[in-house]
Amino acid sequence: MEQSLNILIVEDNPGDIVIIKELIRSSGISFISAHASTLKETMILCEKNEYDIILLDLGLPDSLGLNTLKQLHAKYDRAPLVVMTGLDDEDTALEALREGAQDYLVKNRLTADGIIRTIKYSIERKKINDLHKQYAQRFSILSAATAALNECEDIPSIFRIICANLRILLDNAGVFAIEFPDNEKVRFLGIEWLKPWYDKIYRITGVNLNSPVFSINQNIGKLHEIFVNKKLRRIEGGLYKAFAGMLEKKSCLDVERLLNINFIYSIGFHQHHIFYGGFMVFSKNPIGNDDRNVIETI
Predict the structure, then answer these.
(1) Spatial separation of the C-alpha atoms in residues 102 and 99, rounded to whole Å
(2) Distances (CA, A) of 198 to 75, 209, 255, 263
(3) Which residue among 196, 222, 257, 277 has the highest number of C-beta atoms inside a 10 angstrom radius?
(4) Residue 61 confidence (pLDDT)
């Protein structure tokens, strides 16, 4: 809690806002705050900003009761929600927790110790809940991928299944496979997600993804080297390095900007000492160790 917290206070009573901020300030924690007085204004702020916690009054000019919590939680669940109300109603409190609130505060019983304890515990509970969801999702993806791959015998189908599962795992990051059917050709698989950009990519690079099989008469060995067997590695140098210098450097930079690529990873697929190809991941964010382990396991 030493770091400054970014707190959104959703409250239409100016006097209550002053009291809440003063109680937090008197607790000694460092914080910055924003406030909204309607649900509509709250939604707009949440679309544009990231908050460590949201303190939510249930009675707003444009929304009343638990419907306020339900609507906000359905649209925005990245920050823990703490419900504030003037009613000391245990049934409402329990229903609020079932609908996604981390805690429930009664306004006329607020104290500095109570509000800071709620903020700390709510933030930690949200982190733990998110971790449980992530682990459950990873297990589900591993199970689904294993079941589907056990039914496959041809390499292109295997590649497509792996691409689909990795995109789910990495929150729809750009994933595709490069297969080497022989020493002169490559085939791109799992590139359907790129369809909105096919024309722009063609104009930038001259690569026509509508016909995803390409003849290569140079740098095929260097392209093989990009893919390390069963180990995920980050490719330093962006697309230009990822494709072994086969595309113009400026074209690569233009595609990176087009697709919002900050990180590129690769992993190879070998079986019975035969190299078939591998996968590339285009991501805005770095891949963490837990996701890396799932990728390598698949």
Answers:
(1) 9
(2) 31, 6, 11, 21
(3) 277
(4) 94
Q: How far apart are CA 297 and CA 277, in angstroms?
A: 17
Which amino acid type is present at position 260? N
Structure tokens at 18: 């002053």
Interatomic CA distance for residues 265 and 48, integer angstroms? 29
194: tokens are 């790129």
SS (H, E, C) 145-191: HHHHHHCCCCHHHHHHHHHHHHHHHCCCCEEEEEECCCCCEEEEECC
Radius of gyration from C-alpha coordinates of the chain: 25
Provide the b/e sequence for 193-232 (b: ≥16 CB within 10 Å). bbeeeeeebeebbebebeebeeeeeeebeebbebbeeeeb
265: nearest Cα among 286, 293, 240, 244: 286
Taking only the tens place, the pLDDT of each residue in 158-187 is 999 999 999 999 987 899 999 988 778 889
Residue 245's pLDDT is 83
Residue-level pLDDT at 14: 93
| Cα–Cα dist 13/110, whole Å | 15
Cα(114)–Cα(206) distance, integer angstroms: 62
Residues in the chain: 298
Write out the two tokens for 73. 């939680």
pLDDT at res. 217 = 64
Residue 28: the pLDDT is: 85
Spans of the chain, pLDDT less than 70: 1-2, 217-219
